[in-house]
Amino acid sequence: MDQYTLNLIVVGASFALYIGIAIWARAGTTAEFYAAGRGVHPVMNGMATAADWMSAASFISLAGIVAFAGYPASAYLMGWTGGYVLLALLLAPYLRKFGKFTVPEFIGDRFYSPTARLVAVVCLIIASTTYVIGQMTGAGVAFSRFLEVSNETGLYIGAAIVFMYAVLGGMKGITYTQVAQYVVLIIAYTIPAIFISLQLTGNPVPPLGLFSDYTPTGEPLLARLNEVVQDLGFNSYTAQDGSPLAVMNMVLFTLSLMIGTAGLPHVIIRFFTVPRVADARWSAGWALVFIALLYLTCPAVGAMARLNIIDTIYPNGTASEPISYEERPDWIRNWEVTGLITYEDKNGDGRIEYYNADNATFAAEAETRGWQGSELTVNNDILVLANPEIAQLPGWVIALIAAGGLAAALSTAAGLLLAISSAVSHDLIKATINPNISEKGELLAARISMAVAIAVATWLGLNPPGFAAQTVALAFGIAAATIFPALMMGIFFKRINDTGAVAGMLTGLIFTVVYIFMHKGWFFIPGTAQFPDTISDSLLGIQSTAIGSVGAILNFTVAFLVARSTKPTPEHIRELVESVRIPRGAGIAVDH
Amino acid sequence: MADRPNTAAQTDGTAYWKANLRLIYICLAIWGLVSFGFGILLRPLLSGIRVGGTDLGFWFAQQGSILVFLVLIFFYAWRMNKLDRDFGVDEE
To answer: Which residues form the signal peptide (chain B) (predicted)?
Structure first.
């Protein structure tokens, strides 16, 4: 059986499973559609949250970024896990006690202001749509490879499937489907990693293999990796750029991802579905357990794949000649079809010279070797999917990873679309435009808004502002600067009133979005940026992915200053905050 | 809530919230120390401690901090659920 058929069978079987579960658990009432009737066990909820959370960015894109950036990419690893600490300590139990369906609902009630609710809806839609663009990018990569079509066609197919899938069921369908998706994606991620770790280090546990010795030479794997990448003019894999500006950017970026994690509506909404406040605390922990399984494997996958790629291209060591294009391995041939890996014979010798052509100090050596530019361009986002092929693992492992990548992209896209649709139908239409809308009408509005969100994300996904993980990082920046501060102040600072919260959210939103657009292009349309998105040339010396932290600080500051000079919070709101702070009585809050 | 909270319960509520905040401060201090501290800002100080071909700071940035985050969340959940019962504010 050829690889193509095998891919179709494995991916097809996984899809049949998800759709089967979605139909079986088809949503009935609106309460079920949004919050699964609040009857989900913490471990199950944690697993579903993990699937929801680990998107194409984590599964497909992250290890690629770690592989090619090395240490600086640790910001993603710490940021996307550290946010769960904030979620568990600062938000989840209180929002569960409050007991409403959506994030804007909490903001609207706590700040006793329909305007605050509306602003929260706008923030939520902008952050979630940006996030979906990143998912579409990842789904496009996955579909293009396993169906052997161009990246663009892959994207259209992905969009169609995400839409069908998200419209079929609400949260309940999604909760159980996502448990299945988690299982598929974690198996798909870890099996190739275990094989590769065994091949390179003899250690079957990838996170331990990363810090073990490289079997062929007996030196530590990371030391070996540092040598070969530096031989080709790349930066050392493990080294830290100690300049104050670089360190500041890494701190701000990590912080932005952390507070963005705690502010993203599709994750928070998960904690509305556990039975009790105590369970909300455990749920966050279980979610991180399941997330950590992938996040601890990820840096090993990245480092080992980088080493494998260089060893494939320079089979006799980096000092010898690279392989000729005619003898290129199958994985390069396969991925050339998608256009995500390209070869250009710049010096006409028929060999694949792969090195860092941007390194000025390496230029002299490249010249003496007769190299006229790096001839292989590899898109970061293919790394995880190509990994089993690079390591020459059996066909079923390759098919499995395609299924896993699609599971990751689909589950998150579905969760985000649910958050968008509930914001539009529940918070926008039912709360402000037409309070008398029927349940049926509300569901219809929810589905239409899903379709619109997918169309916009697909269109922008054709020219994404970055690799899947980078695009997603921008979404986190927006959530960090808007929703997280509002939620946290709502629970921890009684003095923050309606005007303060609205002013803070608007400041955070406008500042962050404008800064991102100035560096990534207005509305992400290519060619419309004013500043290059690098540390040295950006407007404030801060990259667009890190700016969310500054937006959040501005949000807090403005909210405090405005609240101080306007009317204090009324007594009944102070009592509401008091009641949110203690778990007792949460059962009553469920039925409303 | 149906009953008006009496003064004793209110004092209890304040004490409970204070205990919660203290726990949050401790957990967040550790959270920041392992990630922003050991993983980024203090990495040069830890460079003398070698771990598998690199240094301890790199380990914290790529693995250590994640493991500590896990411990922190479960520790907090366990302490808080106990605190809920001690102050009598847990769910029946």
So the answer is: none
